[in-house]
Amino acid sequence: MGNNGSKNGHGQDKGELVIENVTRVFRLPGAPSCTALQECSLTVERGKLTVLVGPSGCGKSTLANIAAGYDHPDSGRVLIDGRPVTGSGRDRIMVFQETALWPWMTVLKNATFGPTMLGEMSRSDAEDKAMVLLEKVGLKDFKDKYPAQLSGGMQRRAELCRALVMNPKVMILDEPFRGLDVMTRELMQEYLLKLFQQTGLTMLFITSEIEEALFLADRIMVMTNLPGTVKTTVETDLPRPRDYQVLATERYRQIKSQVMESLYEEGAKIFQRLDGIQDLLGNCQASSQP
Amino acid sequence: MARAATITGAPLSLRVRNFVFSGQFVRGSLAVLGFFVIWQAGSMGLLPFMHAIPTPITVAQAFWEFMHTAKYWQSWLDSTLRVMYGFVAAQLLGIPLGLGMGWNRNFKDFSYPLFELMRPIPPLAWVPVSILFWPTNEISIAFITFIGAFFTIVVNVLGGVSAIPRQLVNAAVSFGASPKQVFWRIVLPATIPSIVTGMMVGIGITWNVVIAAEMIAGNTGLGRLTWEAYLASHTPGIIVGMISIGLAGYVSSMAVKMIGDWLMPWKKIF
Amino acid sequence: MSKMSASNLKLLQPSPPQDGLACRATDGALSIKTVGKIYDPEGVHVEALRDCSLEIAAGEFVAIVGPSGCGKSTLLNIIAGFDNLTSGEILLDGCPLATTNTSPSPGPERVVVFQQGALFPWKTVIENVTYGPVVQGVMSRAEAIQRAREMLSRVGLKDIESSYPGQLSSGMQRRVEIIRALINNPKVLLLDEPFRAMDTVTKSASHQYLLELYSATGKTIFFITHDLEEAIFLADKVMVMTTRPGYIKKTLAVKLPRPRQYAMLAAPEFIAMKADLVGAVHEEAVKAFEAGEREMA
Amino acid sequence: MNPYFVLGLLVAAILAVGAWQQKKKAALYELSWGVQIFKTLTGRHFLLQLAGFAVFIAFWQLTVKTFSLPWFNRLPGPWECLMEWLSPDPAYGISIYTEDYYKHILFSTYRATTAFLLATLLGVPLGLLMGWSRKFYQYSFPLVELIRPIPPLAWVPLAILVLPGDEPAVIFVTFLVAFFVTTLNTLLGVESIDESYFRAARCLGADKQRLLLDVVLPGAMPFIFTGLQISMGAAWFSLVAGEMIAAQFGLGFLIWDSYSLIQYPVIIIGMITLGIIGWASSAVVRSIGRKLMAWRERELYGSGQSG
Questions:
Q1: C212 shares a domain with C275
Q2: Residue numbers of the domain that contains C58
């Protein structure tokens, strides 16, 4: 495994993640069984940032857990570079919704835990590598702080670094910026794009925010409500690097309408079930005609 | 956020001055003063029930006298050693047991019901059995002390292991950590806060148990000292004993807290 | 919602104002004049607001946007009466609401809906909603329950009155909380980032309900958020607040017609307004962010 | 009656309760009752639990009786204790058929309950008041902190001297430990209540008295009941010590008295009885807490439907 993976733009160690006909049914005692995923297939292309959007509770996280190997599908399989994988492995690192930094380690210790534990790198090599990444996300001066001493945004950045130090083939991000305020979130997105452009990693990013998806994605996939499958795929061919100027473009508007229509249709289904809203759908359909 | 920033920023002298003149400090001092006034009044027979209690000054004099006897300091030493033995033994056995139960389902199934069966028995109910079983009085008192702290620590460690956030373990697993590495590098440090909580509660219980055990079955120690003062109807001595026990308990709690801070540098920061 | 019948909406109309209030108010115009707020707990002072002035006309929906920690919530707390101000004054319908001499006191004429939600988890939905009128003694319990039922059913919450808040989804909780505020017939409704941490779809639905209630009751609404899109979509006026010390840096009148519809989110004029505001907000956000990181280091 | 018969009855009762619980479980997993019982009985979980007990009892019997190892041989064996407990004609005068046994239980229960109730009646309001009024807190907290480090059992001699008779002394000591636990947990409970609940109530027009009733009390309830459970355990803990030192009846006295009179099986009977009563009393507190905090229970089980 090359240690220089984080430097070169299009190294051969970037993986392609394929999810093939995955079905996952949850059976709980005393409750009707719940099909979270039904014959769900999708391909995350090599070196692309694919964003999966869906209403909450639609099975996105289940899909992420299966892709990362924490959960097992009832049928179907997960392939990395054409090779089926089971269980979790260091080729697919996941960044979670809740922070998963180990609270008893400093930022630097967190970031170097993986390589030093596996004995792949000497401590000083690992630290050098981690420091390069930490500096990129503006955490150089915080290397000796404990996670509890950092703000939410800093914790997320430290976690991104920790994952990148492992040099994974695919990175799976399960709503990593959820719970941050919108402004911090936007800054985090900029950091993520910076890291993505520098490493060229394959990324699967899961979110429920359209804005976030539009800002980040090479390709957006909208998931249906339970049972989850991929419903619409939208190529987000907006120019990079993106900043808020991109908002004003016609292409942005088109893509946004397209994703919104698709997502709100799913949302309306949930709300019909939960609360009986009828009109959301009408509004959405109106939005597709500019 | 604004407040947190300012509290650490103010100079010490200012903070001290603000504190001394704050309502909190004045009211606290008033309350403590009031306590001593009531005590004094009670001893002088002005309040019901309390005429048998010696005045604060008599107690202070008795304290002074006690402090000049070797027996008093010997009692401190004896009680402290008993607490230490029992407490340390409880940690040495309880922490691995709790970790084992939390880490291995089969082991938990095997031992937990039995453990739950024994737990509600008050530690002091073990006194006679302990005296019967152990060859010396010293060991039996230490054993009862051990019982007092043991159940608390096990319950806390077990709770701590089961409450480790799933993603902390998952993250390590996805980095390729083996089960052994996960245990030593993730589960153990993640449980330390619970271990420390268990120790904090445990040390309080241990002092309670030691005092009672000494009163019931001991020949030496602070509990015995108090009891002997009672037998001799030396009331100031009883209160000196109580205060000493309180001090001892307080000091040991502080010590445990310091150990906790040392074990958890990441918790100390705020 | 547009399809909701007019007779249904009448139930949400404000009932006639109660007598015996010192300042008889019919509308709820809020004027905030050069308000300053300095926290000085331990000798080191933090200036949260400085010369912050803004006018809210009766029945206007105003959204304040700004980065976290910029003093938006401080301003809301002062208006609500949870906190005092250091300088300036706040008038409600021309009567002083908060000045440097008065001690702060909250009241039912300006009810707050909180960021994390503050429905009492130990009371059922109906007990929560009727709490205000019953405690104030303006309605009997039976009347209050009757009215609460009517109001709840208008926002699609019919069969949940004996549920506890913990059993509801976050969207439903927030609707109940807004109804709990509105049943008191307040002059001003203060909303402190009520839809934070909701996912897009729930948020959109909550927006619809809020707009419905706004058009039905015509209350003055003071809405705090850091989500620009939300602010433009909901409000008549969007004001940008600076980082500490906070004051209003930019005001934008939103000229979208009501009722607002989702089509507008992708409309050119909406996007133009957003682009107009983004620059101003982004600048403050970066400032706040850097200040935050410095503070932590 | 034959002790074996009683033993049989006991075992049958335990099995019946266990089987009844399996019926509920069977409904949950949509299995027939018989299949569920079979699955449980042959499941690893149950077998391991059984093995745990078996190993313990075997260890006890082997070391104490069969091999009569040094140290261990001074203790009574399990069978001996069980037979004594169930015997209509006990060798040492204490069994489930004797009046004395119940008299001891009654005395202990009476003392523990009195102390516990007193501690609750005084501790909960005090804790609420401390959390509710800043000034009251500033007056009272230093006092509580001044007295709290003294272990309650150190009060025994003073209590005997000051209070009229042994009985109030034992109850006082028991009360004291329960009182501190209850007060401090209640205070912690009030402090744990989110500020926004207070603000919301004040917005809606509640005055200070209503805040106490509508926010402080229900908001602190979860902590109060955690405190009450601990306080119940602590009450039994110090009651036993108090009875050993200074009482004429009660289970603590029984245990210590049997030791002096060399009636060793009675010690074990006393310990087991204490364990059962202690467990049962915290179960009672727990179930009362569940009843009073329906909102919490429903929250825990109802969270599935949130979307």
A1: yes
A2: 26-109+187-297
